[in-house]
Amino acid sequence: MEIVIQPDAEKAGALAARIVAQVIREKPHAVIGFPTGSTPLGFYTNLVRMHKENGLDFSRITTFNLDEFVGLAPAHPGSYHAYMDRHLFAYVNVDRDRVHIPDGLASDIPSYCRRYEDDIQAAGGIDIQILGIGVDGHIGFNEPTSSLGSRTRIKTLTEQTRRENAADFGSEDRVPHHVLTMGVGTIMESRMVLLLAFGAKKAAIVAQTVEGPVTAMVPASVLQHHPRTTFILDEAAAAKLTKIEYYRYVYDHKPDWQK
Ligand code: PGA
C-alpha cells in the first residue's frame, strides 16, 4: 500500500482529483467507482473545477457508486443519487446512461444486486475506485464482520453508522436501517483503489487498517491484499501511524517512473 500524507484535507482532495483526472485523460472510457460522505466533497469540487477550467471530459466514462439507502427514491435529499447530482453529476458532462448507482427501491433485491455486479463486469471492471472509511473500518457500507469476499448485497447498518449519518436526515430515527452496497470482494477487484481519510476522528481506524491485522472486524484492512491501493490522508488522520516517517520518506523518494 502507498501512504500519502498531505498537509490538509483540501490538498488531499485536490491530489485525489488530479489522480482521477489523469486516469480519465489516459483512458477516456475509464470505469470509475465513486464514494459519498463528507470526505470526498473537496475531491468533487476539484473535479468540477477541472471540467470547467481545463475541459476535463467526463462524456465517455462509466461510473458505479458504492452504495445507496434501501427505501429512498432518487429524489430524496438523503439519497446518494441526490448527493451525486448535488456534488458532481449536475456540473460535468457525464453521460447519464453510463451512471450506475444502486437502486434503493429495487423490488427483487438479490437479483438487482446480481445485475449490478454483471453491469460492472460488462463495463470491463472498475479502473479506479475511490473510497472513504467509516470510523468502524467500513468501506462502502461493509460493516465489521462483512465477509471479505462479499459481493453487492443488502446490509444492515450499525447504530454507530446510523448516528454518523443523522445530520443528512435531520435526526437519527430517519436514517434507514438497510443499504445496498458493493461487497468487499467487489471493491477488491478494482484495478486501483484510492482511500481518502481526513481528521483526527479517523486516526485510530487508519492505523488499524494500515498497520493492524487483516480482519473482517476492520473490513478496510483487506486492502493490505490489494496490489494497487493508495491511502491519501491529511496530517490528523495519519497521526497514529507508527511508521509515518517511513511513509513520508517513501513518497518523497518516489521514482519518476512510478508517479
Ligand atoms: P465520511 O464517511 O466521509 O462522512 O466520514 C465515510 C464512510 O462512511 O465511508
The portion of residues assigned to helices is 25-40%
The radius of gyration over CA amounts to 17 Å
- Which structural class should the secondary elements be placed in? alpha/beta
What is the number of strand segments? 10
Strand order of the largest sheet: 1-10-9-6-2-3-5
Termini gap: 14 Å
What ions, cofactors and ligands are bound? 2-phosphoglycolic acid
List keywords for this structure.
16% strand, seven-stranded parallel β-sheet, binds 2-phosphoglycolic acid, 10 strands, 259 residues, alpha/beta
Protein described:
This protein has 259 residues and is an alpha/beta fold. The chain has helices at 9-26, 41-54, 80-87, 109-122, 159-164, 184-188, 203-211, 235-238, 244-252, and strands at 2-6, 31-34, 62-65, 67-69, 99-100, 128-131, 153-156, 178-181, 192-197, 229-234. The strands form 2 sheets. Strands 1-10-9-6-2-3-5 form a 7-stranded parallel β-sheet. It has a 3-stranded antiparallel β-sheet with strand order 4-8-7. Helix 7 (203-211) links the parallel strand 9 and strand 10. Helix 1 (9-26) crosses helix 2. The protein is globular. The model has no long low-confidence stretch (mean pLDDT 97). Bound molecules: 2-phosphoglycolic acid.
